[in-house]
Request: fold
Amino acid sequence: VTRGAEVAAAARRVVKVELGERAYEIIVERGLLERCGRLIAEAVPGADRFVIITNTAVGRLYGPKITAGLRAAGFDVSTIEVPAGERYKSLTRADKIYGRLLEMGVDRQAVIVALGGGVIGDLAGFVAGTYMRGVPFVQIPTSLLAQVDSSVGGKTAVNHRLAKNVIGVFNQPRLVLIDPEALRTLPSRELRAGLSEIIKYGFIGGEPLLSKIRSLLPLRRDLDGFPSIIVDCCRFKAQIVVEDELDTGRRAILNYGHTIGHALEAVSSYRQYNHGEAIAVGMLGAAKIAQAAGMLDQAAVDDHRNLLKAAGLPLTIKDVDPMVIYRHLELDKKRARGRNRLVLLDGIGRPVIREVEGPPIIGAIEGLAEV
Ligand SMILES: NC(=O)c1ccc[n+]([C@@H]2O[C@H](COP(=O)([O-])OP(=O)(O)OC[C@H]3O[C@@H](n4cnc5c(N)ncnc54)[C@H](O)[C@@H]3O)[C@@H](O)[C@H]2O)c1
Reply:
């Protein structure tokens, strides 16, 4: 073993997702992509063939490294590239991928490797869960959002013309490999979007995570603080997924900020706000609703504002009529008995699910609107 490899192994951190037969590891290590061939192969004993599903941008940057690593370990590797963008997270694109897999003669001895951000992870995970009734898959998330959130927990889906993420399957990966070095090439706006999800974990998880997140800000590009925060977020999410894998209870707390956030994303046609930006605004909205309900004090709302602002995330709703957002909430799938179910904080670090009437929601959205 070379000295370099020893140092690397010392910096390797592993989070276990304890799901019995579906248990898997999340490995976080700087430079991991350079040496992940054997790890991928070992995650699925007996596999003889690997199909990397990636997008054109990420594939160009990191595809050759993964391919070389797997080939060096003696495996057959092919790649399927998808154009970059949320709109390719579709059944149409999944169908094209099924076609390619069939043409290549891919059978159930193969492993799908999802290399990219959350779009690729969701799409490739969905294809893996449905092609031939399921082939194993490995997640190699390359965006910050995917590294702290979407690659963990087994939710996979494609979008429908009428709604996001509504055609999908729960499908846990066999392994998640996270290389924080990949964040070096991630555009700043995408880095901030991932930070928004990290801040979400901070507010629902409370201390000590929240203080650690504060120490990351203002954001530096050296990335030194990231490996440790990524591990904390994965551990936090893994624990909740283990408690409620199929999202029938506690897992809902991970949707903090997402009710108003999703509506904002949807009414701005997924253009003006990306997911992280929309949930930043959504978290501030949720904080205002909790304040109106006497659950959070002014200092906690200010804390939301300050942290999100320091992360370079938006705090206001621009160019969108608040009532249009509210009407979109009426469609919210989590709506129950004529009211919206929201994740609110009963104090920082204490998420609860509450049914909320229209007026406080409207009040909060109006309070976010830029005048
Ligand atoms: N399954 C889940 O539990 C879950 C959770 C949260 C979000 N999601 C889904 O995740 C998606 C959003 O994921 P995202 O924010 O990663 O978006 P994304 O996958 O579109 O990636 C963002 C952009 O960054 C680029 N990119 C990714 N990694 C890069 C790198 N290392 N260097 C340079 N460019 C890179 C991508 O090509 C893309 O253009 C949404 O579809 C959302 O529904 C799923």
